[in-house]
């Protein structure tokens, strides 16, 4: 039996005609294959208004007025990590309503870029290094670094921003939050490609680092850069640039 459909004028008229012929609501429902509620609706409307025309639907006012949307946009432009539930609670609506309003305003949900938080001194040192070595031949340079991989304590993060603003400072999640150290690794690389990747048990000490250079880096580097062909190579530790 059909429950939700718009009745034609003929179908509505049939409801009245069948009642006038003596059928009750249940009989009309079976005869016209429509719900009892639909039959009662049109009988009640005809008896009270004398008409079978559909009532025009009045549009519901939007919870998100232009002023509210503009306020949300202003907040997310400055604080893109603001949870949508805060506005949902304030405006007494669902978080999905807030998300839909933000999308219509051009604010999209994105995963934030993650970058190491650099001080002005870090930035200055990196620019100076780039300028000083702009024309340097790096084909025989070995870069090394140690990396501590950590599990985040804050879980997966998202933000709301406009397109093409991924790397603006306010949209970047600083990669400096504390977490549980999972594993320490050390590796080297060069213009020829990645070199050796080594697991470091515990925290590296001076003795550990010296052992890495003597027992791992030098032997593996000479596989890529034979001493007969490359008697001199340059070694750069990445932390000097930060």
UniProtKB/TrEMBL annotation:
Residues 90-135 form the Transposase Tc1-like domain. One of its GO terms (molecular function) is DNA binding. InterPro entries: Homeodomain-like_sf, RNaseH_sf, Transposase_5, Transposase_Tc1-like, WH-like_DNA-bd_sf. It comes from the Eukaryota. It is found in: Nucleus. One of its GO terms (biological process) is DNA transposition. One of its GO terms (cellular component) is nucleus. This is Transposase Tc1-like domain-containing protein.
């Amino acid at each position: 039996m059909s429950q939700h459909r718009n009745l034609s004028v003929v179908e509505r008229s049939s409801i009245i005609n069948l009642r006038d012929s003596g059928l009750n609501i249940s009989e009309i429902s079976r005869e016209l294959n429509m719900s009892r509620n639909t039959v009662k609706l049109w009988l009640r409307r005809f008896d009270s208004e004398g008409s079978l025309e559909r009532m025009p639907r009045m549009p519901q006012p939007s919870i998100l007025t232009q002023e509210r949307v503009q306020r949300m946009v202003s907040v997310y432009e400055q604080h893109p990590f603001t949870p949508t539930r805060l506005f949902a609670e304030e405006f007494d609506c669902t978080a999905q309503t807030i998300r839909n309003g933000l999308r219509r305003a051009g604010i999209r949900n994105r995963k934030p870029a993650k970058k190491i938080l650099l001080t002005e001194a870090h930035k200055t040192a990196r620019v100076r290094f780039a300028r000083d070595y702009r024309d340097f031949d790096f084909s025989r340079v070995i870069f090394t670094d140690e990396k501590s991989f950590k599990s985040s304590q804050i879980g997966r993060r998202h933000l709301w921003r406009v397109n093409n603003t991924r790397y603006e400072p306010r949209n970047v999640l600083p990669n400096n939050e504390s977490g549980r150290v999972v594993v320490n690794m050390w590796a080297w690389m060069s213009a020829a490609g990645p070199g050796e990747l080594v697991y470091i048990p515990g925290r590296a000490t001076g003795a550990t680092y010296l052992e890495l250079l003597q027992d791992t880096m030098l032997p593996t580097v000479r596989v890529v850069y034979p001493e007969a062909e490359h008697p001199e190579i340059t070694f750069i530790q990445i932390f000097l640039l930060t």
